[in-house]
Write a structure and sequence with these properties.
Blueprint lengths: L1 H8 L14 H16 L1 H9 L14 H14 L1 H12 L4 H9 L1 H17 L4
Helix pairs in contact: 2-7, 3-5, 4-7, 5-7
Length: 125
């Protein structure tokens, strides 16, 4: 249990007011995923920036949808990299969070991928 508390203690606080419907998946995204994404931001950025064949300049357009789709398609063709990115997030889960993830793996993996892409795009030069 000490490891679970350590995982919770190292997470940054995300000051975003949650106005969702309080569905368990939305709460999980807000309470767990957002803080872990913030904690792991530099690692995620480094992984994406160093993917062989990834063209960061293709994300420099003013078209957010085009940029998002480029990375989403790229990760769709590079499942190993996508799994690395998801692993960066689930490696910081508590036991209960991991249990919830495993029960909802498909949906949460999809959401993690989307959130990683949005976070990456929000910080590129």
């Amino acid at each position: 249990m000490a490891k679970n508390q350590l995982f919770l203690d190292i997470r940054p606080i995300v000051d975003i007011e949650f106005t969702g419907t309080k569905h368990p998946l939305e709460l999980f995204m807000h309470d767990t995923l957002r803080s872990i994404l913030k904690l792991q931001h530099e690692k995620i950025h480094a992984i994406i920036d160093h993917i062989e064949g990834f063209k960061k300049e293709k994300c420099s357009t003013n078209d957010d949808v085009q940029n998002f789709n480029y990375i989403k398609d790229f990760l769709g063709k590079n499942n190993g990299i996508k799994q690395q990115l998801i692993g960066c997030i689930i490696g910081i889960f508590t036991e209960n969070e991991l249990k919830y993830f495993l029960e909802n793996k498909k949906e949460i993996s999809k959401r993690i991928t989307e959130m990683v892409i949005v976070r990456y795009l929000s910080t590129i030069d």
